[in-house]
Amino acid sequence: MATSGAFERRRNRGEETMAEEKAVKWKSLRLQGLRQRWIMNTVMPVFAVLLLIVVLFSAGISNYYYRSMRDGMEKQAQALAGAFEEYFMDGGWAGYYKKAEQSAAAFEDKERIELQFISPSGRIQVSSTSSLTTGTFPGTDDISQAIAQNRMTPFQGRDPETGESILAVSHPLTFNGQVQGVIRFVTSLRLVSRQVRLAVLAVCLVAALCMGMVIVSNLIFINNVVEPVAVVSEATKRISAGGYGFQVENKYTDELGVLVDNINDMSLKIGQNEKMKSEFISSVSHELRTPLTAINGWGETILEDLSGDPVQLRRGLRIIVNESRRLSNMVEELLEFSKMEDGRFTLRVEEVDLQAELEDAIFTYQELFRQEGITLEYAVGKGDFPPIPGDSERLKQVFCNVLDNASKHGGAGGRIVASISREAGQQAVRVRDFGPGIPEAELPFIKQKFYKGSSKARGSGIGLAVCDEIVKLHGGTFTISNAIGGGAEVVVSLPEKQ
Question: What pTM did the predictor assign?
């Protein structure tokens, strides 16, 4: 049997360990999911904006460089073609060829740009760089279009022979309306492309740096959010698992601090409610047991009493009736509380004579109080008391509960005073006892359900909560305070019909 018990304990510990590991794993997954959602919702839009900026800048800087080069080459081509057409073509082809060689030899920008003179057939006649290209056919579209369409044509692409990326501008030379040749400026795009790539790379580095700063700052921020959320989540799990009253250390001064304060307050209130519920169950169990014991005991006594003593019989029946009434009142309070909890607590509103309802309750309790050695005094304020809208049964229930409560907690004073008066459009009912009063620390909680404080008097602890709810439904106020000179005072104020 001992071996079996040890095995059972080891198995239970193993199951607890697995449960803890699953909880930690689930927590990690939830936090990881929170980080992922945060990254997706904050970092990705920034990344998309930076990517768009890089693309637009790359396209813009590339277009700027290539467009500037092409514009410069087009201006040079137009100027040189205009000079040839105006001054050089009059000398015939011999003069044209000689001036072409002179122009190619004197071309100042030959280190970057090659100047070519091309025949109508597309063959290079003169070149500013070397004689190696002379006699060759470049074969690009700009030459053929300039010859065919008699207009300046640019070209950007790969050289058909070398495969190098080039930019070219071809301008036709015309004489008597006929294209006699083509002036062509051509340059390599290697250096320009390198400058464009460097500029784009610099922008990409800046964008990457900005992206890195955004990611780091967001990770720091999300960690500062996730860690407190994890702590709060763990606290709520402990509270939901039964750790009522557990308090989270509050190290925050922002909205998280407010959240932690709210959770701590919730945990404290849940702990208090659970404690009050436990006390309520214990109190109700005791309260139910006492009258049931009395009823059962006196019932058996009467059954077994063969003498038929009328005094003994009357005494037993009186105790049975009183204890039965006490049980009925407790059951009625529990039913009212159940209705109040699930929202079924309603009123049947009609015209109510509040003074008459109070006097009925006083008449009911005067004789009972007299038997207990308590004097119940009643005073009526000046003037008439017009009917008010309300539920007569509920209001009488309030008055009876307040009077009964005064006798239980303040009956030691031997005197209870009840009164009714009109005050600023309201009818106020006051019930004061001359007992020990209520401890100041307990006053804020005296109307809470299940709360009994330090009182040892019988009761379930829900009567005043039910009374407070009834008065609130009537639009009135239900206040309890310590009276000047000792004892406690209950004031029920109900508005008159407007």
Answer: 0.44
